[in-house]
Design brief:
mainly alpha; two-stranded antiparallel sheet
């Protein structure tokens, strides 16, 4: 075959003016063989393609977003405001408690633990991440691209995602709430999740640079979903360990409860914490199922104009998850958390 092909620059312009032309379009490149002798040959091709797809929003302004993405800038700015309000309320409540002022929603004198400060940081990271996502979509709408803002968003998304899984792991392990330390297997779980999050965000960056339909895109998409599911399963492990520890403690204390009133009170507190961590376990399972499976299946049924609903329900589920977790593990008065004893020694907190 002739190998003296020269690159050609072609400009094609097409306007969709009829209502029947509306829809979701894909541009597919296919290399067809010239004859039977090329069927057994491996042919590779490369080219640069500069596409300009332009839509018009409800106000008649041009937009580089697809019809299903036009509502995303406004949607994400509303969610960033919602997360900002949650952050302000939570931070003010923590501040009032530390300054021994009247708390916003906690009765009497609640106790603030280290995990509550980490939850404050997580809310702040989530607020900033959602805000930058709104700004990124706005610049894409106006200019068709937003390389710098995309880099900022992916960086914030990586930090937020890693921090979120870490906070869920720490809450599930009972760190600072039930015990002041992490054992070795809990540390291994945290480091494993951190490594998986790095791989997960590498996959996100690669997917943002590749085109749907390419082999590399499909491979990294499979890696992204697989690693994301592994992270979600990993965060459940410390919660199960903690629930089993509570159940073992309850069985040991039930035999001594009739002999000592203090043991009876301790057993009641243990039962209370067991119910709390069981609720947290169910909440995490529902959150994972909804955001990773249900929303994905729901998106396959949407038309090209309703694809933004996938992101809407995902953010609604995440906001509800944050609010319920904050309510379950808010600072409370008359600290009912169990204390972990190791003989007469005080166990120090270790992160190494």
């Amino acid at each position: 075959p002739d190998k003296t092909w020269k690159p050609k620059t072609t400009t094609i312009t097409h306007r969709f003016t009829k209502p029947d032309d509306e829809g979701l379009y894909f541009l597919i490149f296919q290399l067809c063989p010239r004859g039977n002798e090329m069927l057994e040959m491996e042919i590779r091709s490369s080219f640069e393609l500069d596409l300009h797809f332009k839509n018009y929003d409800s106000y008649g302004n041009p937009s580089y977003l697809t019809a299903g993405e036009m509502k995303l800038p406004a949607m994400y700015i509303y969610f960033s405001i919602s997360y900002a309000l949650c952050f302000i309320l939570w931070a003010l409540n923590i501040r009032n408690i530390r300054l021994q002022r009247e708390p916003i929603w906690s009765p009497r004198r609640p106790v603030v633990h280290a995990i509550h400060h980490l939850m404050t940081v997580l809310l702040g990271l989530k607020t900033v991440t959602v805000f930058f996502e709104s700004v990124r979509y706005h610049y894409i709408k106006m200019n068709g691209h937003a390389e710098f803002l995309s880099a900022v968003y992916f960086t914030m998304s990586f930090v937020k995602g890693t921090f979120m899984f870490t906070v869920i792991l720490l809450i599930g392990s009972g760190w600072s709430l039930v015990k002041p330390f992490l054992n070795e297997r809990e540390k291994k779980i945290i480091w494993t999740v951190l490594v998986l999050q790095i791989i997960d965000n590498i996959a996100v960056i690669v997917l943002s640079q590749e085109t749907e339909g390419e082999r590399l895109y499909e491979d990294w998409s499979a890696i992204l979903h697989f690693v994301d599911i592994l992270c979600c399963c990993a965060v459940l492990v410390p919660i199960v360990w903690q629930i089993n520890a509570f159940e073992t403690t309850i069985e040991a204390e039930e035999g001594q409860a009739t002999k000592n009133d203090a043991q009876c009170t301790s057993a009641a507190k243990t039962v209370q914490k067991l119910k709390q961590f069981r609720s947290f376990y169910l909440l995490v399972v529902v959150y994972i199922y909804f955001t990773r499976i249900a929303v994905y299946l729901f998106a396959t049924c949407l038309g090209y104009r309703q694809t933004w609903l996938r992101y809407l329900f995902c953010e609604l589920g995440t906001l509800l998850f944050y609010c319920i977790v904050g309510f379950l593990f808010r600072p409370v008065s008359d600290n009912p958390y169990l204390k972990v004893e190791n003989g007469n020694a005080v166990v120090e907190i270790e992160f190494a």
